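To the wet lab folks,

You asked to see what we're planning to order before we commit. Fair enough. Below is the target structure as tokens, and below that is the sequence we designed to fit it. If anything looks off to you, flag it before the synthesis order goes out.
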């Protein structure tokens, strides 16, 4: 079957994010349950010196907690902290969603090995993304909420404003592997897991906007 050739535009971004979230979610729906962190770990601490960089027309947050190194489409070097894990989850979700045909194989290095990563790679071959997201149509990450934290694994709910003003939330999981946080993709569930929300929660970690 020939690849489906698409542009990364206002139509494909929600579709790709829905696909990505379906693989990165940890359960059968939008999981907002909070698991208490160990004593002395502040899961609500805002990342320090937040900065935003463009990747394929989408603004990606970074901070002192990571990434420390950005080489082309690959961002690495996140701290082993709640904020570092959250930034890795956000950044990798965006990168794997909109990486073009010359980038996605490199971005695959940011994913934890397993059947989920293999399934994503197979599905991605069937698409062809040839350009960045046009100005004014990209979603904007507002913040995140942790649903579980340990030095080895973290669940993150990412809150995003779409270009039409609507709000969405999606769940992702990162695991500590080979000295960095990697996005863990279990085998794809039956449907997409992007959830529409009417408001962000009061305990969301708000990221300063660009």
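Sequence we intend to order:
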């Amino acid at each position: 079957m020939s690849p489906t050739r698409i542009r990364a535009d206002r139509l494909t971004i929600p579709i790709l994010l829905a696909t990505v979230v379906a693989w990165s979610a940890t359960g059968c729906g939008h999981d907002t349950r909070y698991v208490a962190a160990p004593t002395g770990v502040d899961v609500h601490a805002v990342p320090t010196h937040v900065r935003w960089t463009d990747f394929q027309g989408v603004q990606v947050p970074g901070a002192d907690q990571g990434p420390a190194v950005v080489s082309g489409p690959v961002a690495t070097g996140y701290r082993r902290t709640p904020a570092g894990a959250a930034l890795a989850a956000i950044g990798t979700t965006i990168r794997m969603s909109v990486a073009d045909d010359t980038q996605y194989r490199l971005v695959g290095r940011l994913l934890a090995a397993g059947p989920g990563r293999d399934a994503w790679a197979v599905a991605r071959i069937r698409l062809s993304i040839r350009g960045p997201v046009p100005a004014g149509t990209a979603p904007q990450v507002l913040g995140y909420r942790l649903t579980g934290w340990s030095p080895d694994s973290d669940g993150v709910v990412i809150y995003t404003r779409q270009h039409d003003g609507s709000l969405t939330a999606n769940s992702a999981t990162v695991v500590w592997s080979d000295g960095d946080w990697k996005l863990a993709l279990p085998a794809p569930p039956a449907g997409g897991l992007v959830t529409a929300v009417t408001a962000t929660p009061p305990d969301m970690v708000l990221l300063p906007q660009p």
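Structural context that might help your review: The helical segments are 12-24, 82-98, 104-107, 115-125. The two ends are 41 Å apart (CA to CA).

Thanks,
Computational group
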